[in-house]
Amino acid sequence: MKKDTLEYQQALDAVVDVLRERARTGAAPLSYSDLSAELARLGHQVPAYEGAMPYLLEDASSRESPDGSLPLLSALVVLRETGRPSGGFFKLARRAPYLRPGDDTELWIQEIKRLGRHYSAC
């Protein structure tokens, strides 16, 4: 799956929908493999740990918060082994326009809280 293709855009739409719904219903994290399985159920073959997944997660966050003012949807996706996001999430959260402060744990907890507040109000 390549960026800037119809297949990628459709998978991105599905990622955004899945994560928005997750945020609306309590903002409980899900693993990369669970997200991959949900996308497969919706007709999108996206391996959990390779290929397009990191790009889709970054683009989902960028789509929802292009100016950095809204919470990052990708905070909901975690590694099964650690129960925390991968390093890519923290790199994204610290760069412009997001510029999230705090150590990894604090940053992630605050982002999950923001997701819950924002999407429960939608």
Describe this structure in words.
This protein is mainly alpha-helical and 122 residues long. The chain is 54% helix and 3% strand. A two-stranded parallel ribbon has the order 1-2. The N and C termini lie far apart (31 Å).
Number of helices: 5
Please provide the ordered H/E string of secondary-structure elements.
HEHHEHH
- Percent of residues in helices: 40-55%
Strand percent estimate: under 5%
Radius of gyration: 13 Å
Care to count the β-strands? Answer: 2
The description of the largest β-sheet is: 2 strands, parallel
Low-confidence stretches: none
Topology, element by element:
Elements: H1 6-24, E1 30-31, H2 32-41, H3 53-64, E2 77-78, H4 87-94, H5 104-120
Parallel strand pairs: 1-2
Helix pairs in contact: 1-3, 1-5
Short summary:
The chain has about 120 residues and is mainly α. The protein is built from five helices and two strands; from the N terminus they run αβααβαα. A two-stranded parallel sheet has the order 1-2.
Distinctive features:
single chain; 122 residues; mainly alpha; 5 helices
